[in-house]
Design brief:
Elements lengths: L1 H21 L4 H10 L2 H26 L8 H15 L5 H14 L3 H29 L1 H17 L1 H37 L1 H21 L4 H25 L8 H15 L9 H11 L6 H32 L1
Helix pairs in contact: 1-8, 1-12, 2-13, 3-4, 3-10, 3-13, 4-5, 4-13, 5-6, 6-7, 6-9, 6-11, 7-8, 7-12, 8-9, 10-11, 11-12, 12-13
C-alpha cells in the first residue's frame, strides 16, 4: 500500500502539471503546430538524443573500470536504456534498475555499481549548475523574467505550487530518512550490526564507498571529460534543433537554446514520471518570455520525441536482457 500510495502521489503531480500546461490550449492548434514543424530538424533532435544514450553508456564504463571490472558496451548500454524505461514507471527508479541489470549480466556487485551511479549523477549535477550560472550571466534579464513568469503561474494556478511542493516534499523526505538512519545507527549501531539486516546495510555502505572511490581513480580522465563535454553539447543541440524546427522559435539564437536546455533539464529531473508535465510546464513558461504563446507545442514535440526513442530502445534492451537470461 505504501508503494502504491507513493506511485499515486507522483502520478497525481504529473497529472496536475499536465492539466495546467495544456489548460486553454486548442487541440486543433496543437496538432496544426506539430504539423508545421520541420520533420528533418525533429529527426536530427532524435538522432542527437540517441547519441547521448551511447555516450552515457561509454562514460559509465570509464567509472566502472577502476573497480576491476570490464563490462561489455552492449550490457552497459542495455542497462542505461532500461534506466529511462523504468523512470516512466517511477521517478528515479531507473538508477536502481540499471545497477540491477548490470549486476545480473556482468556479475558486478550491486552496491559498488550504485556508488558509481551516485558519482556520475553528482558530476552531472555540478555540470548543470555551472552551465546554469553561465546562462544566468549571459541571459540575466531572461532569467528574471522567467522567474516572474513562474511566480505569476504559481499564483494563478496550482501547477506551480504542485511542482514546488512536490520537489520540497522529495527533499524533506530524503533528509528525514537520512537523519532517522543516522540516529538509529548511533543509538542502536552495535545491535543492528549483529542482525542480518545490519550486515546487508554494512555491505551496501562499503559497496557505495567503493563505487564513489572508483570515480576518483579514473584511468582515462581526459577521455571521461571529453565525453562529458560532448554529452552536454548534444543536449544543447537537442534544444537548438527543435527550436529551428518551429516557425515561432526559428528566429531565436544559440544563447536562447542554451537557456531552454537548462530549463528543460530542470523539468527532466523533477520528481515526476520521466519529467512528464514538469517539462511541459517549465518550457511553456520560458517561451512566454519570448512572446511564444503556443510554447506547449515546442514542449510536446521536444519531450515526446525523446520519450519515443527512450521507450522504443528501452524495450529493445529489455527484450535483449530477458532473452540472454533465458538462454
Amino acid at each position: 500500500m505504501k508503494k502504491v500510495g507513493k506511485y499515486l502521489v507522483f502520478l497525481s503531480l504529473t497529472g496536475v502539471l499536465l492539466y495546467f500546461s495544456f489548460k486553454g490550449v486548442s487541440w486543433k492548434e496543437l496538432l496544426s503546430g506539430i504539423k508545421e514543424a520541420n520533420g528533418w530538424w525533429i529527426g536530427a533532435s532524435m538522432a542527437a538524443g540517441y547519441a547521448a544514450f551511447l555516450i552515457r553508456a561509454r562514460r559509465w564504463q570509464f567509472i566502472i573500470h577502476p573497480l576491476g571490472y570490464n563490462p561489455s558496451f552492449k550490457h552497459t548500454y542495455d542497462a542505461v536504456m532500461m534506466t529511462y524505461l523504468a523512470n516512466f514507471a517511477m521517478p528515479r527508479m531507473g538508477e536502481v534498475v540499471r545497477c540491477g541489470v548490470l549486476q545480473r549480466t556482468e556479475k558486478i556487485p550491486f552496491e559498488s555499481l550504485l556508488g558509481t551511479v551516485v558519482m556520475e549523477r553528482a558530476f552531472d549535477f555540478i555540470c548543470l549548475l555551472l552551465i546554469s550560472i553561465s546562462v544566468i550571466f549571459l541571459q540575466f534579464d531572461t532569467f528574471v523574467a522567467f522567474w516572474g513568469e513562474l511566480q505569476a503561474a504559481e499564483s494563478a494556478s496550482a501547477a506551480g505550487t504542485a511542482a514546488s511542493g512536490g520537489a520540497l516534499l522529495y527533499i524533506l523526505a530524503g533528509t528525514a530518512a537520512f537523519l532517522a538512519i543516522a540516529v538509529g545507527l548511533l543509538v542502536f549501531g552495535k545491535k543492528i550490526a549483529a542482525l542480518s539486516l545490519g550486515m546487508k546495510v554494512k555491505k551496501l555502505w562499503f559497496g557505495l564507498l567503493d563505487g564513489l572511490k572508483a570515480g576518483f581513480r579514473l584511468e582515462r580522465r581526459v577521455l571521461f571529460l571529453t565525453y562529458t563535454v560532448g554529452l552536454w553539447v548534444i543536449y544543447f543541440l537537442q534544444a537548438y534543433t527543435v527550436m529551428l524546427a518551429m516557425p515561432d522559435t526559428v528566429h531565436l539564437g544559440a544563447s536562447d537554446a542554451l537557456f531552454l536546455m537548462v530549463v528543460g533539464g530542470l523539468g527532466w529531473v523533477a520528481p515526476v514520471n520521466a519529467g512528464i508535465g514538469a517539462y511541459h510546464f517549465l518550457i511553456k513558461s520560458a517561451l512566454l518570455i519570448y512572446g511564444v504563446e503556443n510554447g506547449v507545442v515546442f514542449a510536446t514535440i521536444s519531450h515526446e520525441t525523446q520519450s519515443l526513442i527512450m521507450i522504443l530502445f528501452g524495450l529493445v534492451s529489455w527484450v535483449s536482457v530477458m532473452a540472454m537470461r533465458r538462454r
